[in-house]
Write a structure and sequence with these properties.
The complex is a heterodimer of chains A (312) and B (246). Chain A has 312 residues and is an alpha/beta fold. Chain A has 10 helices and 13 strands. Chain A has a 6-stranded mixed β-sheet, with helices on both faces. In chain A, 43% of the residues are buried. In chain B, helix 8 packs antiparallel against helix 9 (218-239). Classes of the chains: A alpha/beta (312), B mainly alpha (246).
Amino acid sequence: MSDEPTIVFTNVSKWYGDTVAVADVSVELRPGVTGLLGHNGAGKSTALKLCGGFATPSQGSVRVLGTEPRLDPQAYRRIGIVPDGDGMWGFLTARRLVAACARMRGVADPDSAAERALREVDLLDAADRRVAGFSKGMRQRVKLAQALAHDPEVLLLDEPLNGLDPAQRLHVVDLIRRLGEEGRTVLVSSHVLHEVERMAPRVVVFVNGKLVAEGGTTDIRDAILDRPRTVRIETPRSSDLARALIGERLVHSVRLTDGHLEVDTADVERFGLRLPALARECGATLRAVAPLGDDLESVYSYLTDRARGRMR
Amino acid sequence: MPINATVVSIVLRRLITGRRALALAILPLLVGGIALAYFASGERDDPTPAEIYASLAEQFLLPSAVAFVAVVLGASAIGDERDDGTILYLAATPLRRVTLVASSAFAAWIATTLLSLPGLAATLGFALGSEATVRAALWSLLGLAATTLCYAALFGWLALAIRRPVLVGFLYVVLWEGSVAAFAPSARWLSVSAYGRALLHKGLPAGTDAPTVPAAGAVTALLVLIAATVVLVVLAARRFPRVELP
């Protein structure tokens, strides 16, 4: 597997009027699968559009396989794209649609290419049905098949698992992982960490258009899991439990909110292990224990703050 | 000009199927309906059938009815693909951008000509009646085809150049092609349909009144329309890479 970067963002910004979609991103992606992680509106789709040559950077440059596809359409022989939208030529059968895409991309035998690509996505059974009658999951697989039909070196996949049922997800995750192992550069976006984790050894994380983390997926996951947390505890003896938690140095601050305890801890794992025993020791019945701010937004905010701290 | 058969077949199929195509075909037929009313009246001396046909075809059919069909289909050839995102599947191909634009315009041209043909045939048949000739039919067909070719390129370019191509196209047809340019002799050199009229008029008997037909030969009229088409397609192709796709 070559280690040359195949996708290179250099100081890329993209704005639409006053809205900044991508802000000064520089990153190099190499063969293998890279997850593009971020919440909705983080700039993932814009980043993929910039790679695919469907949008022009307001600043900086995006090069794929050493060129800008927007200005050099020949590059599309080597790039496969799964766009975000559901629009398709519904009057065509899946087989004809995929073959038409392969033909337009210069494939010598588009019918065989369509057959192979539809088999890859497990859609041969429905290949001769019109796409208009397809479910979201089937459309998603047609999109993937047309991206694979010309055997591209680079794949840009925008949320390719959307709309798939669990079995199909598993199949597509395996397929994407295999494509990466074959030496292709696959950039796949998702807002679900564990999904990305299953197919991408590397991940780049976008928050509000900024690249806030980049590295091995396991490292990023650990950073997310190890981050300080606020935990809400419902117990009738909140004062006693608060004293015990502080005494054990499990938390660095406690608050009483609406009669419930809210504590901040930097060591989530030790806190989780010790809390039941401490509660038992001071006779505090635990009615509920729930982490606060565990949504993706706060996870990404944490990564943003962490990235800022690193910059300083 | 390079044309890709796959792009043409996809765009054409989209344009000529569905209720929109049927509704559009009615517009030129309305002019045929006026010709039918004339035919039913039995009046044949003043104005003559050729004058009636010239008036209906040159002042209503080409600059208004056919132009409206062309606005919708010309702008939709690329506009529909852009609206629902399928343009990405066209754009993500190694085809030259001029090929994409020319193929879309070609599909719009075929679709507009096909949907306008029944209206042209009805207008010609009812207005000229027994005076209809093969010569009149062939020149009319050439006039129609050359006009729709240029319209397809014009409205295809508009679809890439501005936000509301159909609205602007309608305004252009209403305020220019179908009004000033169709009725004011001084504006006859400055409209697409005028050159189509020049071709159509060649098939009519000598001396048929033609106040808004430019005094251009058939070859000149054809060359003007083809040259304008080429320029518009090239402009659209240059515009294509700068357009934000969905």
